[in-house]
Amino acid sequence: MRKYWHVINLGIQNNLTYRFNFLARALFGLVPLVAMLYVWKSIYADKGSGGMVGPYGFAEMVSYYILVTVVDALTAVNEDDWQIAADIKDGNISHFLLKPIDFLWYRLCLFLAGRATYLAVAALPLALFIVFLRHYFVLPPDLATLGCFLVSVLLTALLQFFMSYTMAMLAFWVMEVSTFIFILYALEYLASGHLFPLNVLPPLAQRVLSFTPFPYQLYFPVSIYLGKNTGTEIVHGLLIQAAWVMAAWGVARFAWNRGIRKYAAAGG
Amino acid sequence: MSRNPKTEQPGPLEPDRTAPGTLARYGLIYAALWKNSVMRETMFKGNFLLWILVEVLWFGLQLCFIGVLYLHTDHIGTWTKWQVIMLIGTSHFIQQMFQAFFLVNCTNLSELIRTGKFDFLLLLPINTRFVVSLRQVDLGAFVNAASALGVIGYAARQMHFVPGPVQVLVFFGLCLGGILVHYSLMFLLASISFWTVRAQGIVWGYYNLFQIARLPDEAFHGLFKAFFTFALPMLLVSNVPVRVLTNKCDEPGPVLLLLGMSGLCFLLSELGWRVSLRRYTSASS
Known about the structure:
The structure holds two protein chains of two kinds.
Chain A lengths: L1 H15 L2 H29 L10 H18 L4 H10 L4 H5 L4 H30 L10 H27 L8 H14 L11 H7 L9 H7 L5 H32 L6
Helix pairs in contact in A: 1-6, 2-3, 2-6, 3-6, 3-10, 4-7, 7-10, 7-11
Chain B lengths: L4 H4 L13 H22 L1 H25 L5 E2 L2 E2 H35 L1 H7 L4 H7 L4 H20 L6 H27 L7 H7 L1 H7 L8 H10 L2 H4 L1 H7 L7 H27 L6
Antiparallel strand pairs in B: 1-2
Helix pairs in contact in B: 3-4, 3-7, 4-7, 4-8, 4-9, 8-9, 8-13, 8-14
């Protein structure tokens, strides 16, 4: 266990050198968010006071996007997938085949370190942003909901990571994985609720999405926080989310084991 | 490049009178750069197609978003659904044309400086900004720009609307202005590479601004609108061309503003470039 703490430590130190990049990313990322809120505001203004879009009033809609930004900061895979793919392509994984350290856990530690660093840097602009919009920001209905939200966020982070890790495993078979990563990212962006809350979609689309892991990559924790799910729905959802995490972990392991068989280190 | 800079370089004081005119010479050089880009793309055909697919997906995603918004409303300001779809199409067209000619080159500048390859480009007997800005052409982006035109045409059909030839001409002229805005601002950001090697984060941050360019201007007001009109004219870049195309522009003001801002942005980027160049000390030696 101790060796993995070292990895996290190293990861944080490494990531801190990119603090300026992180800050730029966090700040620039707020700009389209504000733009999005303007668009929703003008849609709600048209409906008059008390207007609803799906089950959302304007304040809840603003909260939705703020929470998306927060959960995203906590769980999004930053450059881990590119780096893992590069590790495979450049032959850096050869070390791990010889050392008593598991590559998947190693990368998971680096991912967590990256998130911790990002959060440390992004916390200030994000907090200012929330203070600025405090009139629209709703708190979770009770502590139990907050607890479920946090559990769900943790599962989201794991799901994000294992899915990205699996995608990066493609580097064993194809030269250029970035296109595949971007294709998955586009799907996630839409189907995980990044662009809009999924329950403003037509019922059929919602039903189809509920059979994919995507809503559990972002939408689910946010909707727990906003109190959109009742007790049994939350438990049920968390179980499904955990199942997706296990499945993604299984596929990631499987892809690694198959990839390693094909892997031939060239050079050192 | 087919020309060898070492043997063919004319002395700076006596221009070579047998050489083709400046414009023709730059034309020849640019043709050679195109040839290189085509060769590079044909080496990775599968990848080329996959990148087009990626862009098509993202484009579809934007359209999807607008589709969902308009499930819940009939108009944003005075913008109707098909007008906004035309706006998304136009913004995609402008972005893809920018990408075709400039994007990779802008993002590569910091890499050129970091690796010291920039020294070599400085030695070439041509305008350095020209070769830095236009070194590579992204051919896939032309395909995507064409798909954007298709969406614009489709939206016009849905509105039962046929613009006049003058409107279309002005539309494309204004699109050029928009491309110039994106290029100038991105190039200005890329010039920061002369100060810090970490400029790539900033350059990619610009990507977020594209997202503003595709939203209808009437949703915005106050400081936000003023900033993204007069400081970073994102709300002009694609809104103004679409307004002209769909008869939503009664006065010449916005048109002149877009043209003026694109000129200003270009001037600023040239100024920034010259100041940055003066600061440059090679990284390799």
